[in-house]
Amino acid sequence: xxxxxxxxxxxxxxxxxxxxxxxxxxxxxxxxxxxxxxxxxxxxxxxxxxxxxxxxxxxxxxxxxxxxxxxxxxxxxxxxxxxxxxxxxxxxxxxxxxxxxxxxxxxxxxxxxxxxxxxxxxxxxxxxxxxxxxxxxxxxxxxxxxxxxxxxxxxxxxxxxxxxxxxxxxxxxxxxxxxxxxxxxxxxxxxxxxxxxxxxxxxxxxxxxxxxxxxxxxxxxxxxxxxxxxxxxxxxxxxxxxxxxx
Length: 246
Known about the structure:
Elements: E1 9-16, H1 21-40, E2 44-53, E3 57-66, H2 70-74, E4 79-85, E5 96-106, E6 120-125, H3 133-137, E7 141-146, E8 151-155, H4 161-181, H5 189-196, E9 206-209, E10 214-217, E11 222-224, H6 227-231, H7 236-245
Parallel strand pairs: 4-9
Antiparallel strand pairs: 1-3, 1-5, 2-3, 4-5, 6-7, 7-8, 9-10, 10-11
């Protein structure tokens, strides 16, 4: 099995958890933090598929990140992230607690994970959303079902069917590879459950506390201030803390 420590391409999946619209906004905050940090490192960050919720929120977002050390940098982000803050819609100033889950999967070469064409159910549809007339009028979005495991992946951000199919296959191979690593081929749901739990407020790896301007990682017991700056992509201090803890 391929050494994941040397893999420089990953799939990052972010999902809003408990907390309604505020959870979706928080998922968007996390996505932008990772994107800004990736760009700061000179890495490529491309959205594969996304379900938006409002101007700045996401119900789900799947991104592909390519860069030297990407997996080692982001592998510790898998889990439930909790935010405590006063939502913009809160008129009485009450602090709300919401969550978003993150899953990080290494992308592997096609030769590492064999996927038979006969095991795939591929459908095409209109992508919708931003991207111009081509995106809206042509069936470029791709949805792939891996029939033996029931895993479903999709890609709609590229402009051609072929490009979206390749992106979706990257996601599928990443999920199948992770399932094989965990010796749980049959469903990726168990892997996600092990990585992110149920996304309940009580299951968290890290808390982003806005009133106290503090981020706390509950696994290594570290705390950082300047929360807003970190969310703007100043992620080195967190990444370095995990390198030091290994």
